[in-house]
Structure formats: C-alpha cells, structure tokens
Amino acid sequence: MNIALAQLNVHAGDIAANLNAMRQLIDDAKAQHADLIIFPEMAVGGYLIGDRFLHAGFVDELLQANETLRSWSDGIAIIWGNIATHPTSQRNRDGRFGRLNAAYFANNGKWVKRENGLLDGLYVKHALPDYRFFDDSRLFKSGVELAHDLGLCDDVLINPFVVELNGKAWRIGLEVCEDLWSGDYTINPTAIYAAQGVDLIINISASPWTLGKEQSRLKQVQAHTKALGDTMVPLIYVNAAGMQNNGKNVLLFDGDSTIFDRTGSIIVEANDTFTQELKVIAWGESVLAQPTEHKLLHGLLTGIREFDAQVLGKRFKWIIGLSGGLDSSLSAVLLTKALGADRIIGVNMASRFNSDQTKSVAKTLAAKLGITYLAGSIEPLTTATLSTVEAFGVSAVDDGLPYENIQARLRGHLLSSIASYQNGVIANNGNKVECALGYATLYGDTIGALSILGDLTKVQLFELAETINTLYGKLVDSSLIGHLKDGKYVFGLAPSAELKANQIDPMKWGYHDYLVRYFTEYPSRHPVEWVKKYVDGSWKDTPVASIMKAYGMDDPKVFASDFRWFSRNWQLGVFKRIQFPPILTVSRGAFGFDYRESQLPPIESPELKALLDQLSQS
After folding, report:
1. By the 8 A CB rule, do 242 and 586 touch?
2. Strand, helix or coil at 95?
3. Residue numbers in the chain where pLDDT is lower than 70
4. Strands, E assignment, 31-167
5. Could you tell me the sign of the dihedral formed by the alpha carbons of 28, 32, 35, 36, in that order?
6. CB proximity list for 539: less than 8 A, separation 6 or greater
7. Contact indicator for 272, 289 with CB cutoff of 8 Å
8. Distance between CA 618 and CA 604 in Å, rounded?
9. Fewest 10 Å CB contacts: which of 174, 208, 269, 302?
10. What DSSP line would sit under 19-33, residue for residue?
C-alpha cells in the first residue's frame, strides 16, 4: 500500500482552518495514489486549548467534524486525532461531561471495524500525561477508565483494526502519543499490540519539541524493540508541526514524522523543520532525511511566525527596546528574519548612563537589518517623574535602586505608548537567567506579547549569536558575545542594564546558567542536592567545575555566599516570573506551566542552612 504521512500544522482552536488544510492534504494524497493518510493527535481542534475542551458547544463542533472527515474517506482510509465522547462514560472526574482523547479510523465512508467488535473506528488514548504542560487526566478519561465504564478489563480496547487496503487485509494497532511512552504507566499498548501480532502500529502525536527531543523519541522506540525482541512490529509515528500555546508557554512542534522498522531503525522521515508536509511513500520503501542543522534557530523563527499569524493575525508591528545589548540584538535579528524588516521597529531609549558604544551598536544593527529605528533620551521623563513624586510629598532622588527601577519602568511606558501609536506589540527581550534571578523590573523590561529568549540562558545566546553571524553575516556585534577564557566569559562590551554608572550584570555567566538549567530542567532537584555535591567534592566532576574555580568557588566561603545570593534572588523573583509574558519554550524545563511555582516567602530549609553555615565557617 501507499501511505501518506500528513504532518499537519495544527491551528489550535480553529476547526475550519484545520478541516480546510486536511481536505487539501487528503485530495493531494489521493492524487498521489495513497491508500491511507494519517493525521496527528487532536488534528481537528488542537491539543493545547485548555478549558475550551469543557465548552459543550465547541466539543459538539469537533464531533460534527468527525462525520465530515468520514465522508471524505471515499477511496482512501483516514486516521486522525480528535476528541470523543461515549454515552457510557457520562462524567469525567471533574463532574463535567465525559471526554476522551481519541484516534479515529474511517475507510470508504465507514468506520473501520475492530477485531473484537468494540468501538469501531475509535481508539481511546490509554496513557494520559500529567507532567510538564500536560493535564490530560483533568481533561479526559483514559481507555482503561472507559473500559471500566463498559464493565470490561483494562486492556480490552487495545485491539487491532482490520482494514483492506490495496487488496490486502491489514491488522493495525492505533496509539495516541503518550501510549508509546509507556514506561511510567501500568499499561503498555505497544507490547499488547505486539503480542497480538499486528502488522504495524500507528502512533499519532502532538509532541512538543524541546532540545534533544529527537533522541528521546528514538530511545523510546528502541527501548520497546529491545524489550519485545522478535515480536516487535513496524511503527509509524506522525506528529504535528508548527506552534500551539497554553497561555504561558508557546510550544513548538517539529514534525519529524517517522517510520521505524521492527528493529527500531528509521526507514522513512518527514521534515523536522516545524513545517507541514505530506509525505507519500510505498510501504517498505526507505526515504531518509538529513537531520536539520541549526534546529534551535529554525524553531525560534517558526515560533515567532506562527505566534504572529495564529494569535495576532499578522496585524501588528513589533516594537523592540533596542538597547545595544546582546538580548535585544538577537530579538531584532530573529523578528526581522521571521517577519520582515517592514514589521519591526527598534527603539533606543538612552539615559545619561548609556554609553556611546551601546547606542552605536543599536543604530548600526538597525541599519544592517533595514528596520525602522527610533532614538531619544528618557531623561525628561525621569526628571518629570521625580518632580511629580516629590509633589506628592515623597522624597525622590536620582540614585539607588528605586531610581534604576523608575528608568526601567519608564522605558516600558514609552515602548507601550509607541506601540499604541504604531499599532504594534512589544517583544520581550529577557533571557532565562535574568528571569530566574529576578534581574528585571516589573512593568518595565518584563512586558511584552511574547518572550522570545526567555527559555534560553545567556551562554545559549552566545551560541545562537555565533550561529546567526555564520549564517547571515556579521549582524550581532562581536563585542557582545562572551567567549570562554581561563574559565570565565570575557567580553568586548560586558552585559549591563546601564541603569547606573559603571554597572555590570552581577551574574556569574556559565555557572549561574548551569544552575538555572540544573534546577528547571530537573525540577525534583532540591538546592540541598547541589550543596551536598559541593560538600562531598563531586562538583569537581561537573561540566562547570573549571568555571567555578575561575570564580574562586573552590573556596567554600565564596561558594556558600554566592549560593545564598542565587537562591534568595530565585525565590524573590517568583512574583515577576508569574507575570512574565508567554515564553517561547525550547528546554525541558521552562518557566510558566512547565516549571510551576507558587508565590511563597524565601525559605532556607534547616538542612540547607546547616550545610551553608558549615561551608561559610570552613
């Protein structure tokens, strides 16, 4: 048979747009003589739509779309993901109407039958993830729960569909996304299908991409192959492409739809560049693709384009506070490459503390990119603000932290005003280390429609800047890019907020970047664990040992003092992070609905305090 992998760019919440795209892909697949076309998980309405799944009217629209898709299966079998309901499953655990995350299977206008005669044309996801961005068990019942509602055993709904395609009867096992990642669940659909001797397994997914996700997927398949041995069968994996968001995290879907043979080897690959593709292949054919170079850059550009198109309708200009620093320079380059120079406005808002060098860097970059460039001084605003505060009977001086925050907030106010008059939205420039340590002013540099760099550490931005300069010519000024020398990052122009004279960012670049990733990407880690590594000496085996030594942290007093500073700032910064713009997510632990936080007072546990006190007295 000929199989079409329909790697759909799913527009969350837009049923009409998704159906139109699916109809076009179905027609294209028919024109290429495909016998079967496979769409991703929740292809009709999107996966990340939050409590829209609780809206009965919206769910009714989704369910009606199933009949439309079934009618399009004349001459081609179609598999797609969508919500389902079942009369036996009347209530979810939230007390609302029963909902199921399902795969549908239709052929020649009819629902494809199961071997055991249960739920023709419908497979229900069994493994419901409740980690990171996912709250599936809050939104859906699992296949196990539905089986119990029907008075049946746990695995009875993991049963092959039997369909005739191109003159041959095929026994096909369907899965939905997490069913393949079954190691943490009590049921293993892949193993059950293999034991039943199906011809192949088809897994439809809406699997968000983060750095290294490709290797994780391959490991999952190979783990099944190792466990099942000769009983393993070929597996087809079809993933969504593009972008969806949950309000706080903007998530990327890289596609990377793949066919694995029974040994776990890849024999067919669609693109992994976050873009929609219809790939039609003959069963047994091998079509390999080269892994995408600079995938992080591809992902960031896709996230910007899709957020701009899906959320903002391409209606607005993007306003950047173009300070002449690395972060704003990268934001300007990314936005320009994603959307075009005519959509971007860079604004340099200098005070008396801004150097001629940073102002020159900002102006030069704007000229290279061809974007609109606005420049001026915020000194009149700061003077007027101090005078106004004094008029209210509050003493105000042009020095100290309050004055620094006034400058940052006035820049936010100015950007907001310019955006209002220019029909624009503001790009947030903050990076992940600044976000983690609260090194940003609420309602100043924390504002924006989208945080483009908020899931990348400063060191990752150095690498991104080098990539951009290699691909596009020298756009990012080399003086802004840190280079590791003798254990420390050195700069031609050191990072600075430029809110007071001779100001330099207080972060220990390289080391604090590592700690931010250490705690966010593995949230079960407690600060005590890291301090114990220092106490027992195993920190010397970590990737940042040389950087720590360069910062003098082989001295326990220096280590303890710095860690207390780091930990306190992390805890104090929560109130800023929970008000941060949506973050374009690329790591395995992003702030937002991934690394979840409550607003709590700074607390140093007794064990942590004792360890740090011990080190301080060494």
Report:
1. no
2. coil
3. none
4. 36-38, 77-84, 100-107, 110-111, 122-124, 161-165
5. negative
6. 530, 533, 545, 548
7. yes
8. 20
9. 269
10. HHHHHHHHHHHHHTT
Structure tokens at 142: 């699992």
Residues 6+ apart with CB under 8 A from 230: none
Q: What is the pLDDT of residue 498?
A: 87
* Distance of alpha carbon 44 from alpha carbon 8, whole angstroms: 10
201 within 8 A of 234, measured Cβ to Cβ? yes
What per-residue confidence (pLDDT) applies to 176?
A: 98
In this structure, the number of other CB atoms found within 10 A of the CB of residue 541 comes to 8
Q: How far is Cα 61 from Cα 17, in angstroms, rounded to an integer?
A: 13
**DSSP secondary structure letter of residue 267:** E
pLDDT at 62: 98
Could you give the CA distance from residue 266 to residue 253 in angstroms, rounded to a whole number?
19
Give, in order, the Cα–Cα distances in Å from 9 to each of 20, 212, 235, 277, 319.
12, 21, 22, 8, 27
**Residue type at position 367:** A
Q: What is the largest CA-CA distance in the chain?
A: 88
How does 369-401 read in b/e, with b if 16+ C-beta sit within 10 Å?
A: bebbbeeeebeebbeebbeeeeeeeeeeeeeee
Q: Can you tell me which residue has the tokens 């790009």?
A: 427
Residues 6+ apart with CB under 8 A from 579: 442, 446
* CA 439 to chain centroid: 22
In angstroms, rounded to a whole number, what is the distance separating the alpha carbons of residues 437 and 427? 20
Q: How far apart are CA 226 and CA 271, in angstroms?
A: 27
From the list 411, 442, 438, 436, the residue with the least C-alpha distance to 426 is 411
Q: What is the pLDDT of residue 129?
A: 95
Q: Give the residue carrying structure tokens 């590791």.
A: 484
User: In whole angstroms, what is the distance from residue 291 CA to residue 281 CA?
Assistant: 19
**What is the pTM (predicted TM-score) of this model?**
0.95
In terms of C-beta distances under 8 Å and separation of at least 24 residues, what long-range contacts does 396-401 make, across chains too?
Answer: 399/500
Tokens describing residue 158: 């993991």
Residues in CB range of 132: below 8 A, 6 or more apart: 588, 593, 594
Distances in Å between the Cα of 344 and the Cα atoms of 336, 374, 543 are 7, 11, 39
For residue 470, give every residue at least 6 positions away whose Cβ sits within 8 Å of its Cβ, in sequence order, or none.
Answer: none
Sequence-separated contacts (24+) of 594-598 with Cβ below 8 Å: 594/132, 594/133, 594/249, 595/520, 595/523, 598/574
Instruction: Please report where in the chains the tokens 């207390």 appear, as a residue.
Output: 564
| Cα-Cα end-to-end distance for the chain | 72
Tokens linked to 67: 């009949």
Quote the tokens at residue 188. Answer: 């293993």
Q: Are 13 and 178 in contact (CB under 8 A)?
A: no
Distances (CA, A) of 68 to 16, 61, 493: 11, 11, 60
Count of residues making up the chain: 618
At which residue do the structure tokens 């996700």 appear?
213
User: Which strands form 317-321's sheet, in the order they lie side by side?
Assistant: 241-245, 249-254, 583-584, 450-451, 424-428, 317-321, 344-350, 372-377
Residues 6+ apart with CB under 8 A from 155: 144, 147, 187, 192
CA distance 369 to 362: 11
Instruction: Determine the distance from the C-alpha atom of residue 342 to the mean position of all C-alpha atoms in its chain, rounded to a whole number.
Output: 27
Q: Sort strands 344-350 and 317-321 into parallel, antiparallel or unpaired.
A: parallel
